[in-house]
Amino acid sequence: MNRTSGIHSPARHVRRRARTRPYALFVGLVLIAATSASVASASDAPGPLGVTAVVADTAHSARVGALFDADRADDLTGNHFCTASVVHSPQRDLVLTAAHCLGDDGTDLVFAPGYRDGTAPYGLWKVERRFLPEGWSRDQDEDSDLAFAVVTPDKGAQGKAVEDVVGGNRFVTGAATGATAVTVTGYPDSRETPISCTNRPKRHSATQQRIDCPEFTGGTSGSPWINGEHQVVGVLGGHEQGGSTPDTSYSVVFGAVAAELYKEAAADP
Fold first, then answer.
1. Whole-angstrom Cα distance, residue 84 to residue 213?
2. How far apart are CA 53 and CA 197, in angstroms?
3. What burial class does residue 77 get, using C-beta atoms within 10 Å of its C-beta: 0-12 exposed, 13-18 middle, 19+ buried?
4. What angle do CA 117, 48, 187 make, to 5 degrees?
5. Residue among 56, 69, 55, 67 at smallest CA distance from 10
6. How far is the CA of 231 from the CAs of 13, 126, 158, in angstroms?
7. Which GO biological-process labels does this protein carry (predicted)?
8. pTM of the predicted model as reported, rounded to 2 decimal places
9. H helices within the chain, ranges in order?
């Protein structure tokens, strides 16, 4: 079962994860956020690992946003279906997500960095070009479930590159799984604000890594895994398109395929 919301274009043939206990869940998340001194950061882990909480509105959290079908741009509330994040590139116009979020059906998409409560505080950005690994395009190989997209201003972005507006995390390949804790941030489809959780990833296989973080339900596909140096070392997807339960999530291990895909996308004029 994937972590993609089922509300977007049916052309992608995705399944919806059940929305279980949304009200109780997020009351609990707010209480966790309010009572914890802090959620553990990936750099020094001052708080508990494996705890999910609502994300504070900060400069760094603004680099993570939600994906929408373009025809939902005038009515964002409740219509996001995946998560994406800005990564540094020479053209300063690149976002990272899961391949199963972008697909190749040609549906027009927009990205809203820092999306909260039906608003796009940093504007909407149109997905202009998509870069998916050959393994995914050919047969949806789970070891190829990552993708990049070049985005351009659509609404309220004042003609700037997205990285000039919100900054970008560095995309890194070859990092050892579990070398440091990482923070996963994403948008469940039952929530209009992002959640995050910090924990140490574990090896699932030579090509897949997993992390134990509760309540990452539908809509969190594409969530970045970010270490304490603001490096993206994973993206929620991969095995079972993210996982069969909301409490354990997966990512492709970023290796040679990911490095080549980034090189191609970053060189796009």
1. 18
2. 7
3. exposed
4. 25
5. 69
6. 32, 24, 27
7. proteolysis
8. 0.86
9. 22-35, 99-102, 134-139, 162-166, 256-266
The average confidence (pLDDT) of the chain is 86
Amino acid letter, 86:
V
Q: What is the pLDDT of residue 104?
A: 67
Place of tokens 């995946």: 82
H-state helical runs in 121-208: 134-139, 162-166
Measured between alpha carbons, how far is 75 from 80 in angstroms, rounded to an integer?
10
Question: Residue 125 is which amino acid?
Answer: W
Specify whether the backbone of 12 is left (phi greater than 0), alpha (psi in -120 to 50) or beta: alpha
- Sorted by where each starts, the structural domains of the chain and their CATH numbers stand as 1-269 (2.40.10.10)
**pLDDT tens sequence across 124-155:** 999 999 999 999 999 999 999 999 999 999 87
